[in-house]
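Researcher: Go.
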Amino acid sequence: MVCKPTKDDKSPLLPERYPQGDFFVCDIFDAAPKGDMASMEHPIFSVATKPDRTPRYYQQGKTWLEIIPSVKGLATIHDRDVLIYCISQLMAALNDGRAVSQTLRLRAFDLLTATNRPTGGEAYTRLRAALLRLAGTRIETNITTGDTEQLDGFGLIESYRIVRETRDGRMQEVEIKLSDWVFNAIRHKEVLTLHRDYFRLRKPLERRMYELARKHCGRKDEWRVSLAILQKKCGSNSTAKEFKRLVSTIVHQDTEHHHMPDYAICLAENDVVVFRNRNTMPQKIAAMKSASVPPLDAETYHDARTIAEGWDIYHLEREWRAWITEPPRNPDEAFLGFCRKWVERRGSAR
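Model: Structure:
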């Protein structure tokens, strides 16, 4: 049964604690929040509100992953904020033409501020717990990042170190070493930009649903997914009935408040969840001129790797750009079609 929408005028979003206009955080916000596509697509992070110590195995076609928690539990969707901040900083550096390292040093205050978290003493305790879970959660998978398949077990971060700490125990600086798996995704730009209101979403399930929509719907008009498959992709351990209730509540709140970033959500017949593009994402800056084609979306490269398994997709892109005689209406779909034809004629490189 679908519950009635509430009449509460209070927004489901968390308050915006640090408006971008504030002079002391403007530099922090220059790095747009970004997430790696592999963990956006697959249920790596726990959406539970209590410690989740249950190992999980997920398989979709030939893709599989096993996630093993530590005694502290699985890394949660809110722990993911640490990774998003790290990825955002490194991508901003790459876009500026600066060299990047797998190990980065950051100010804990900047991380908390950029992810819309409180900066009181308890916030630093929670940040330390998040680092423990990120390092302790181990993953084995055949999912490739940057054309590299890593079959050994690894953590979401390999290690962390508190560099400076105040007398009352608050961390001032922390050094984080990202896993090869995450760093490969960054170097090959297998990332997607997230709406800043992602950090204002209260519920773990809301955050997970948004990042799935960002990955699967992208700039398309809509994405439809069955409730059962959505639950699997979210990694929810709820019963099917409870999961439907949770999704229905989010749907009704979004209908009333329009609080979900970038995508409106509705629950259609036959338990199908529909994500509709609000067209709030910034448009591509580059414009087509004569036979030139703008840069492709990051998700297009991800899809191309799946289609043309084993091939260097950047080589295929150069071949495609040299082959076309006029700008296609949809460059991303045109490139993927080229990749399909390439594989039909030459086969997989593996």
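Model: Residues 28-194 form one domain.
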